[in-house]
Design a protein that fits this description.
mainly alpha
């Protein structure tokens, strides 16, 4: 697998983490209360941080050579 394809799949994983983060945050705010809400919101925030770092690294690495 080429480096460009690997970067594409990694960025798709980051995008999926962003959707998971948004979904869990909305669910937590609407349906949960107490300590469970805080745990789910923390999970959501961690997903967002990880996806942000992944996207940042992919952008900093820059374009790869096309084959």
């Amino acid at each position: 697998m080429s480096q460009a394809m690997m970067n594409m799949w990694i960025s798709f994983f980051a995008l999926a983490l962003m959707f998971i983060s948004a979904g869990t945050a909305i669910f937590s705010r609407a349906k949960l209360k107490g300590w469970l809400q805080k745990v789910v919101l923390t999970f959501s925030f961690l997903c967002l941080l990880v996806s942000g770092w992944i996207v940042f690294l992919i952008v900093i690495i820059g374009p790869t050579a096309a084959m």
